[in-house]
Write a structure and sequence with these properties.
This protein is mainly beta and 262 residues long. The chain has two domains: 39-132, Sandwich (Immunoglobulin-like), CATH 2.60.40; 151-245, Ferric Hydroxamate Uptake Protein, Chain A, domain 1 (Beta Complex). The chain has two helices and 15 strands. The chain has helices at residues 2-24, 173-177; strands at 39-46, 57-62, 70-76, 82-86, 94-99, 106-110, 124-132, 151-153, 158-161, 183-185, 191-193, 199-202, 205-206, 219-225, 240-245. The chain has a six-stranded mixed beta sheet, with no helix packed on it. The protein starts with a helix and ends in a 17-residue tail after the last strand.
Amino acid sequence: MKYCLLFLFAFNVFQLSAQIDREQQPANDAGNIRILSNKLYGKLLDKNTGKPIEAASVQLFAAGPSNKDSLLTGMLTKANGDFSFDHLPALKKFRLLISAIGYTSWEQEVIPEYGKASDKEKFRTDLGNISLEAEIKQLGGVVVVATRPALEMGIDRKVFNASKSLVSSGGTAIDLMKNIPSVSVDVDGNVQLRNSSPQIFVDGRPTILTLDQIPADNIERVELITNPSARFDAASSSGIINIVLKKNKRVGLNGVASIGIG
C-alpha cells in the first residue's frame, strides 16, 4: 500500500510538470512567416504561344534620381522561363529590363511591398507571368536588277550587245566591229570573221549598205554566225555578221561625210 501511494504521488508530479511546460511555451503563429532576404522573381512567357522563353536577358536596375541606371544584377531565364534575384538592397523601387532575340523589349518599374514589424525592411515580390510579344519587322521592297553581258553564247551564234560598247554612241558600225571578239577590221574598213570575209546582214537579210553607213547608236546587237545553217545560201559559207537594229528607230536622215586630200 505504501508503494502504491508513492507511485501515484510521482505520477501526479510528472503530469503537473508537463502541464506547466506547455503553458510556458509560446504559441506558434502560422500566419507570421519571417522573410529571410529580399527577393524578386517571375516567369517569362511567349504572348502568342504561352510557352516559356529561355535564355532571355533580365536586368535589374536601381530606380530613382540618386542611383539612375545603376545596374544591380542580371541573369538569363531558365529553360522554364523562371528568373529570380535574391539578397537585394532595401530600395523604394527598381527598374526591370527584359530583352530576348526575336521579341520586343519589356521594361517596367517595380515597387516592392515590405513586411511589418521586424520585416519592415524586407520584401518578397512575385511578378507573376510576364508575356513578351514577338518582334515583327517588315522588309522593304526588293528590286532585282539584272544586266545582260556584253557577249552571249547562243545555240548557233555569238551575240554582242551594242549597248555595252563605249563606241555605240557617235560612231559607226565599223567602230563597233573593232570591239567585238573574233572580228577584225583593217585600215580600209574591211571586216573579217575568223580570217574569212563574212556576209553582212541587217535584220536577218542581205544588205547593200556598207558598215560606215550604219550609225552605231542604231544598232541593238550584232550576231556572229560562224557556221550558217542550210537555210542560208552558199555565199554565206564564210560566216555571217547579222546587225540587228533597234526597233524604235529615230525618224530622220543619217549620213557620214568624209573628206580626203590627194
